[in-house]
């Protein structure tokens, strides 16, 4: 029998808000900190009454369970969208503005205008609907937690794809973060066109 680990308080949080805002969208990002690769954002509108086992802050879920949750979230969502901002946009705009851009694209791509967008963190993108930020929102709201999983899984898959194109950097191991291995590979092979140059000013 499958083990039940249901963080019902996350769903209760959204359910309470739906009394005033029937359509709630959760928004989260993945990949603000790495030295390489696009930044990802996801927006998710969960169907009313939906419960998803194991759903929690994506950082607290194993990679195996995140992959399983990814499919379940897509199946049970009323609407969802995953969007990105490119390395070029990160270097041109700065990482905060690029992240806000990716979030804005994710919400716009839902095909359904939410009554309220819940944004993980303490900054708000410019949206065409009412929005509020929720600090540590992926551990507070089921909708944000679902968005965190979609964003994290999508970016991890993207980084594994970059690993095939640039095997010398071992992207599948560190996902672009500034690990000792990553810095060693940059020192040996230089900076690639998927590295964020504004994050590597000291090296350049």
List the helices and strands and how they pair.
Blueprint: H1 8-17, E1 24-30, E2 39-46, H2 63-76, E3 77-85, H3 87-93, H4 95-108, E4 116-120, E5 130-134, H5 142-165, H6 171-174, H7 180-189
Parallel strand pairs: 1-4, 4-5
Antiparallel strand pairs: 1-2, 2-3
Helix pairs in contact: 2-5, 3-4
What does this structure look like?
With about 200 residues, the chain is of the alpha/beta class. The chain has one domain: 2-Layer Sandwich (Nucleotidyltransferase, domain 5), CATH 3.30.420.10. It has seven helices and five strands; from the N terminus they run αββαβααββααα. A five-stranded mixed sheet has the order 3-2-1-4-5, with helices on both faces. Strand 1 and strand 2 form a beta hairpin. Helix 2 packs across helix 5 and helix 3 crosses helix 4. The longest helix has 24 residues. The chain is globular, with a radius of gyration of 17 Å.
Please supply descriptive tags for the structure shown above.
alpha/beta; 204 residues; Nucleotidyltransferase, domain 5; 7 helices; five-stranded mixed beta sheet; RNA-DNA hybrid ribonuclease activity; RNase_HII/HIII_dom; globular; single chain
Short recap of the structure:
This protein is of the alpha/beta class and 204 residues long. The protein has helices at 8-17, 63-76, 87-93, 95-108, 142-165, 171-174, 180-189; strands at residues 24-30, 39-46, 77-85, 116-120, 130-134. The chain has seven helices and five strands; from the N terminus they run αββαβααββααα.
